[in-house]
Design brief:
single chain; about 240 residues; alpha+beta; four-stranded antiparallel beta sheet; extended; about 25% strand
Length: about 240
Amino acid sequence: MARASTGRRRSSPVRSYGITPWGAAFLRAFSPADTRRTAKARAYFRDRHVHALTVVPGRISSSVAGSQLDPFDVTVELRTVDAATVVELLRRDGRAAELTEVARGGQPLRDTGRLASSLVYQVTGSDVVVGSPLVYSRIQNRGGVIRPTRGRYLAVPLPTLTVSERRTKGPRDFPNTFIRRGKSGRLIVFQKLSRGSIRPLFVLVESVKITARPYLTWTRADLEAIGRRWRALLAEGDD
C-alpha cells in the first residue's frame, strides 16, 4: 500500500565545523566579537545554507542563502602570517608537536584515509559502540609514546623520501647507507649517491610522542546533530 506524502522536505545531513585544531582556534578568535552573529553564521553553515565557499591566503568568501529571496555574498579578510612566525609561536607556547600538523596542512589524520574509513559500529540492546579495529587508532585518539620493540631506535622518515618510500621502506631497504650525527646531535641515516653527494633518509630516535587528536568523542555539537537527525527520521516515519 502506498503512503501519501505530506510534502514535508527532508532535512539534509548537517555539516561539522572546527574539527581541526586550526579550525577550532579560528572560531575561538571570532566568537567573542559578536556572539549572536557568530551563532547565526554557524547555524547557516551547519544547515547547508553556505555555498561556493572559497579559502585563499588572507580571505574567506562564500554565498549565503539567508532569510531573503536572493543570496548574499560574505567576505572575511585576515592578516596572513608567515610560516616562521607560526613555528616560533608554537614553540613559545609549548606546542612544538603541532609542527607536524603545520607541515601536513592541518590534517594530521588525513593521509591515506584508512583510519577514517575503518570506523565501524556495533549495536547491543540500547547501546551503540563506535570504534576502529586498526592497531594505531587508540594512540591517535588518546596520544602516547611509541618505543621500539626491536633494537634501540625508531627510524623516522625525513621529507627527502617520497610518500611511497616513507610508507613502505626502512633504512635496510636502501643501499650504500651510513649513520652520522647531524648538527642537532641526532643520529641520521644517510645514503651515498653518485658523484659523492649524499641525502638524509631517516632520523633515529629512542621514542616518539604522539599528540592526542581525539576523533572518537561526543561533543555538544555532535549530540545536537544526532538529536536533529533522530527527530527528522521520526518525522519521516509519521508521513
